[in-house]
Amino acid sequence: MSLSIILTTILSNFATSTPNLCDEVYVDAAGSRYMDAVGQMLSKYCVWTGPDAPVWDADVCCTIDDDGAACVVPDSNGRCATGKRAYCEYGTRTAGGGVICYQPFPSMCDAGFCIEAPDVPPPSQGLMMGCCGAGGACHPLTEALLLACLDNGGTFLSCDNGVSNIDGTMDCWD
To answer: Mapping DSSP to helix (H, G, I), strand (E, B) and coil, where does residue 11 land?
Structure first.
């Protein structure tokens, strides 16, 4: 054996890689990942948000169940007292000492899907996630509308200021 093969084998035996919490994504009934036109997927355990997510860039300890992930900072020795270790690229500490990890998505406005707000706009629903198709229509990210949007070449985008419409579409304002 050559020295490089021996070193590679030794390093791979001792190298550890912390899995990214956001890499655990939603899949369809056949096990295929929901993926938009540009390759973005929807994380199960990271909160979907806009492009200005705060950088965390550290490991967290997460207890994961059907409701999501409850994450905390590792102890002073870098160990997890409970849960499993995961990497969190974007996140923030909560008042209760937990950590919320985020999955940022591009802005609908930056992608050209925003419209001018009406003269008397209805109250904004705050940050919303949508799937915008090649035809220009955006739909809130719901299971019922997800497949139709993806089948039409849709892209997952965030909206800071907009509303859901009765017809199932959404408007995002500049």
So the answer is: helix
Which of 72, 104, 136 lies at the terminal end of a domain, its last residue?
104
Rounded to whole angstroms, the Cα distance separating 100 from 157 reads: 20
Helix (H) or strand (E) holding 159: strand 155-159
- Does the residue 12 lie in any domain? no
HSE-up (13 A, CA, CB side) for residue 94:
11
Span 76-117, pLDDT tens digits: 998 999 899 999 999 999 998 899 999 999 999 999 999 888
Count of the separate structural domains present in the chain: 2
Residues in the chain with pLDDT values less than 50: 1-15
In a domain, 96, yes or no: yes
Residues 22 and 90 both lie in one domain: yes
Structure confidence at residue 29 (pLDDT): 86
What single-letter DSSP state applies at residue 21?
A: G
CA atoms within 13 A on the CB side of 119: 0
Do 89 and 28 fall within a single domain? yes
- Are the beta carbons of 153 and 133 closer than 8 angstroms? yes
Q: Considering the entire predicted model, what is its pTM?
A: 0.83
